[in-house]
Design a protein that fits this description.
There is one protein chain. With 389 residues, the protein is α+β, with helices and mostly antiparallel strands. It folds into two domains: 5-256, L,D-transpeptidase catalytic domain-like (Beta Barrel); 299-387, TolA/TonB C-terminal domain (2-Layer Sandwich). Helix content is 27%, strand content 24%. The protein has eight helices and 16 strands. The protein has helices spanning 30-34, 38-57, 143-148, 174-189, 207-217, 221-240, 299-313, 350-360, and strands at 5-10, 66-72, 77-83, 91-97, 119-127, 135-138, 159-161, 170-171, 195-200, 246-249, 254-256, 323-332, 338-345, 369-371, 374-376, 378-387. The strands form four sheets. An eight-stranded mixed β-sheet has the order 4-3-2-9-5-6-7-8, with helices on both faces. Strands 1-10-11 form a three-stranded antiparallel β-sheet. The N and C termini lie far apart (51 Å). Mean pLDDT is 85; it is low at 1-27 and 261-271.
Length: 389
């Protein structure tokens, strides 16, 4: 038992909430400190009164002493829950729409994979000078991530932020981050040092979302086991409107205290004849280059190509799916030929993946990467969005 559970990752939903008032130099509260910065000061002036009125309309006490944030990747939603006593049930204050999703479903495991993490986190940074207006940092990588992700390059710098753009974070609008930043600041000022943020692949009670996840996890037992554990936490909160205690094993697996374990019966994989694709035996593959490979016409032309490819692939989606994010790895060889395509994340439908690779193999020749004035092969990773209008 000593080795089974390495640490309590979160104490949310228990009597272990910190009650001490956060203080700063000169006796100023955390709110006063935030107001010394231009963007937070503007936010409080512009939105605080509006937030108080919204709380009053929903018969909630202002300001909330505890907040809880949960985000759903596929559904592109973020919920903000509030309460004022540790023993109270959380109540939903507001749901925000997430602007855009980078990557696909599944946890983040490598720096530069453009994945939004999945799992159980908390806010560990308030950034009033963010390049994305305002931002709230998350404690990625957490204990589980450190055990399961790339040991040298797990990645980091994951934020909820404004400006409605992202490369692996959770973006919302400036107007929304104004509100969330104020709510989090008040909770922090009143002693909630660990504001929980749970990131789920889907809303598990939405049939369309569940169908999409089921297709992805059909032949991926690792993804299925991981998402099932997250679902246990989702179910616990749905039932009690309190947060479960989350633990981490010495293998990096989450344990949801009080959750009902579900029997995993993996589907039998369907045997299928492999489809040949362009493959080269490439030597001299490098990580760092002086100039990255260039698609004909430049970056804008490549984005247009990917957008059209996503539209063309809609017809090959399974009937129950309307949206998919597929992460593809490939190599631009030293003669500029794209080759060695591999699906990293996304669809587990072999017919779909073969069709996507067939089409990408017809890409025009690139300008190869350059290192020390010589062309070299370079690995590329790209996420393709396939979505029906």
């Amino acid at each position: 038992m000593k080795n089974l559970l390495t640490a309590f990752v979160f104490f949310f939903g228990s009597a272990m909430f910190a009650e001490a008032q956060t203080s700063f130099k000169g006796g100023n509260s955390f709110i006063d400190y935030q107001k010394t910065f231009a963007h937070p000061d503007e936010s409080f002036k512009r939105k605080e009164d509006t937030l108080q009125k919204q709380f009053a309309q929903k018969k909630l006490d202002w300001p909330a002493k505890y907040i809880y944030i949960r985000s759903f990747k596929y559904d592109s939603k973020m919920e903000v829950w509030v309460k004022n006593d540790v023993k109270d049930a959380f109540k939903l204050f507001k749901t925000y729409k997430i602007c855009v999703l980078a990557g696909t479903l599944g946890p983040k495991r490598l720096e530069g994979d453009y994945q939004v993490p999945e799992g159980f986190y908390y806010i560990n940074e308030f950034n009033p000078r963010s390049n994305y207006y305002l931002s709230l940092g998350l404690n990625y990588p957490n204990i589980s991530d450190r055990l399961l992700s790339d040991s040298l390059r797990p990645g980091g710098g994951i934020y909820i932020h404004g400006n409605c753009v992202t490369v692996g974070c959770i973006p919302i609008t400036d107007d929304q981050i104004d509100e969330l930043y104020i709510l989090a600041s008040y909770a922090k000022s009143q002693g909630q040092d660990y504001i929980p943020v749970h990131i789920f692949p889907i809303r598990y009670n939405v049939p369309k979302s569940r169908n999409y996840l089921n297709v992805l996890a059909k032949n991926d037992p690792t993804l299925k086991k991981f998402s099932d554990r997250l679902e246990e936490a989702f179910d616990y909160f749905e039932k009690y409107k309190q947060l479960p205690v989350i633990l981490t094993t010495d293998k990096g697996e989450y344990i949801v205290s009080g959750a009902m374990a579900k029997k995993l019966v993996p589907d039998k994989p369907i045997k299928r004849d492999p489809v040949p694709h362009r493959t080269r035996n490439i030597t001299g593959l490098v990580d760092a280059v002086h100039q990255w490979p260039q698609f004909p016409g430049g970056g804008d032309a490549f984005m247009k190509y990917l957008d059209q490819l996503g539209k063309d692939m809609v017809q090959f989606l399974p009937d129950e799916m309307k949206k998919a994010y597929v992460q593809v790895e490939f190599i631009i060889d030293q003669d500029g030929t794209p080759t060695n395509f591999k699906i990293l994340r996304g669809m587990k439908d072999d017919d779909f993946n073969d069709e996507l690779i067939n089409r990408m193999e017809k890409m025009p020749t690139w300008q190869p990467a350059i290192l020390h004035d010589k062309p070299v092969p370079k690995k590329m990773i790209q996420t393709i969005t396939v979505e029906a209008n």
